[in-house]
Specification:
Number of helices of chain B: 2
Domain Nitrite/sulphite reductase 4Fe-4S (chain A): 119-272, 405-542
Number of strands of chain B: 5
Strand order of the largest sheet of chain B: 3-2-1-4-5
CATH architecture of the largest domain in chain A: 2-Layer Sandwich
Strand content of chain B: 25-35%
Oligomer: heterodimer
Largest interface: A-B, 28 and 23 residues
Protein name (chain A): Sulfite reductase
Distance between the termini of chain A: 54 Å
Pfam family, one (chain A): NIR_SIR_ferr
Structural class of chain B: alpha+beta
Number of helices of chain A: 17
GO molecular function (chain A): 4 iron, 4 sulfur cluster binding; heme binding; metal ion binding; oxidoreductase activity
Number of strands of chain A: 20
Helix content of chain B: 10-25%
Organism (chain A): Sphingomonas adhaesiva
Shape of chain A: globular
Strand order of the largest sheet of chain A: 1-2-5-4-13
Chain lengths: 544, 98
């Protein structure tokens, strides 16, 4: 894992001191809310439906046990005993006091954490593959590059006031586990003739105008990547619209001028930027990369075999554990989606349990996924049973990864001041309707995603089944979408037709899944069947 | 009736204008009538409330009920965590929210 150097620590500490003074001035009435709001947002502090909400950055979703315990401590000491892991691989606390926010940031800084750039029109937390460093299919570890981009983008003087927020994802595998092409910039590391480089995609995003990112550069060498990103941002910063918040994202710029013209301008800018020499010296890249060296795997683990005699354990193994590139090790996915629970929520005690397991069995590493689950990326196969047993005791052993109850849901109208409808109760009802584990497994991979408003924090456009909550004359209404995907087979879902009330949309989903079971062919996932047969059979099943 | 709601500056708690002060309980909210916007401005300027705004509500025997679901959820707390609402011991507390 990356460890702060003196420079990293000093800028985070200085930011805490600065924010403490800003809060003091606000509480003393020396500055108005209009003046204070952009300052608090730059430190991740929102005013939400019930209270202040603090969004803490988890860079590329990577944590160690010390940091995870700090998240539990914050939940227990300053909030109401829980936190909410988000689709941006961050964590949010819903019940923060303004007068305590500086103390929280000071505590976070002691474990190399902060809330900087988790809001505002700047480059946000960098997303990455939760299996980085463990996946067999990656061409390189994406984390050093994500870290480099984090450092480049932190307090970048040109990009602190962009036209709109900006999200970057870095992956290094063909399988896209980070919704890479639904980011403002998506980077897929690749090798060409033995040279490490990247394919760069620009202009993706969800929200009210969902778009899939265009491939802007087939291959840029890793040596040039930072210059190329700088050029991509400069063109956006120069021409992105600032007159209309709904047309300010880079996806709209690409839509308006076209990817070819954008590419031409980026190439022109790239030639100028390259001369500035902003790409890191080899020694600095080596310093960062060394911090992501593989852990000391035990070669003797290669012969490990899991004891599958406990049927519940065997089901969890099949559903939540993925192959590791190191023989004898596995990737453990901890579901934060118990049936009837709140997607992404974890209590302080549960967060501590996950930290303990990472420290004892997982080389001290954890990952937050964009699907609002937690990953222990390096667990010896011989230890899986002990890990599972501890998860069972903590209520964290739901064996539903990528199944219909593994629902992504935004906080919705229960917490969010932007929301039009409640996402969480709907997720709970769907989870309960499909609670039978055998039924879920029969349905197979089915990614269901719920947003409580058009801003799409719940990624509904990218759900195999997506749900969008809207306000219809003061009443919650839910639109159903089919056929989306945030993975390497990226696609945007299509609305089925008129919306439903809460119970109605649960019934509609059941009619959709029944139709799928009726018409699927061998080996087809739900989304495969949808793509083969189209919307019509499902629409007929839903609306008659 | 017209209510004024906002958040306590230091704690962030949802608060309601009672006619003379601010309360966390919507039952104590008062009809601010035509002066609602002016009161909101005065109270915000005095830092007794943060980001106040005026909403429509209905008077009932149990007290004022905000017209919009968003403000009703603000008044009680998240519907999915009754233990974190203002009345965690009252199972019927949320019957008017949805």
């Amino acid at each position: 894992m990356y460890r702060y150097d003196e420079y990293d620590q000093s800028i985070v500490d200085a930011r805490v001191d600065e924010f403490r003074d800003q809060v003091r001035r606000r509480l003393a009435g020396e500055i108005t809310e209009d003046q204070f709001k952009p300052l608090r947002l730059m430190n991740g502090l929102y005013l939400q439906l019930h209270a202040y909400m603090l969004r803490v950055a988890v860079p590329y979703g990577t944590l160690d046990s010390r940091q995870m315990r700090m998240l539990a401590h914050v939940a227990r000491t300053y909030d109401r005993g829980y936190g909410h892991f988000t689709t941006r691989q961050n964590i949010q606390y819903n019940w923060i006091r303004l007068d305590q926010a500086p103390d929280i940031l000071a505590e976070l800084a002691t474990v190399e954490m902060h809330a900087i750039q988790t809001s505002g029109n700047c480059i946000r937390n960098i997303s990455s593959d939760q299996y980085a460093g463990a996946a067999a299919d990656e061409v390189a570890d994406p984390r050093p590059w994500a870290e480099l981009i984090r450092q480049w983008s932190t307090f970048h003087p040109e990009f602190t006031y962009l036209p709109r927020k900006f999200k970057i994802a870095v992956i290094a595998a063909e399988e896209d586990r980070a919704a890479m092409r639904l980011h403002d910039i998506g980077i897929r590391l690749t090798r060409r003739d033995g040279v490490l480089g990247a394919t760069v995609f620009v202009g993706g995003g969800m929200g009210r105008t969902p778009m899939i990112a265009h491939e802007i550069r087939d291959f840029v060498t890793a040596d040039d990547l930072m210059s190329y990103l700088e050029a991509c941002l400069r063109v956006y910063n120069r021409y992105g619209r600032r007159d209309n918040i709904y047309k300010a994202r880079i996806k709209i710029l690409l839509h308006e001028i076209g990817p070819d013209e954008y590419r031409r301008q980026v190439e022109e800018e790239f030639a100028k930027v390259k001369a500035l020499g902003i790409d890191p010296p080899a020694a600095e890249l080596a310093r960062i990369t060394a911090m992501f060296a593989p852990p000391a795997f035990d070669p003797a683990a290669a012969g490990d075999v899991a004891d599958r005699s406990d049927p519940d354990f065997a089901v969890w193994l099949d559903q939540n554990v993925r192959a590791h590139r190191q023989p004898g090790y596995a990737i453990v996915n901890i579901s934060l989606k118990p049936v009837g629970g709140i997607p992404g929520d974890a209590s302080a005690d549960q967060i501590d349990v996950m930290a303990d397991l990472a420290q004892r069995y997982g080389f001290d590493e954890l990952r937050v996924t964009h699907a609002q689950n937690i990953v222990l990326p390096h667990v010896r196969i011989a230890d899986l049973k002990a890990v599972w047993s501890a998860l069972v005791d903590a209520g964290l052993a739901e064996a539903n990864l990528d199944l219909i109850s593994d629902i992504i849901a935004c906080p919705g109208l229960d917490y969010c001041s932007l929301a039009n409808a409640r996402s969480i109760p709907l997720a709970q009802k769907i989870g309960e309707r499909f609670a039978d584990p055998a039924r879920q497994r029969d349905l197979g991979e089915l990614k269901l995603k719920i947003s409580g408003c058009i801003n799409a924090c719940g990624h509904h456009h990218a759900g195999h089944i997506g749900i969008l909550g809207v306000d219809r004359k003061g009443t919650e209404n839910f639109q159903l979408l089919l056929g989306g995907s945030g993975a390497e087979d990226v696609s945007l879902g299509r609305i089925t037709g008129p919306g439903f009330d809460e119970d109605g949309v649960v019934d509609a989903i059941e009619r959709v899944t029944d139709k799928y079971l009726e018409v699927r062919e061998t080996g087809e996932r739900f989304v495969d069947t949808y793509r083969r047969v189209g919307m019509t059979p499902f629409k007929e099943a839903i609306y008659g | 009736m017209r209510l004024i709601t906002g958040n306590d500056l230091a704690t962030g708690d949802v608060v309601w204008w009672t006619g003379t002060d601010w309360s966390r309980h919507v039952e104590q909210a008062a009809d601010a009538g035509e002066r609602a916007e002016a009161i909101a401005r005065e109270e915000e300027a005095a830092r007794r409330v943060n980001v106040p705004y005026v909403i429509a509500a209905t008077a009932t025997a149990d007290g004022p009920r905000p017209a919009h679901i968003k403000d009703r959820i603000r008044a009680l707390g998240p519907t999915v965590r009754p233990d974190l609402t203002l009345k965690p011991a009252d199972p019927a507390a949320g019957s008017w929210v949805i």
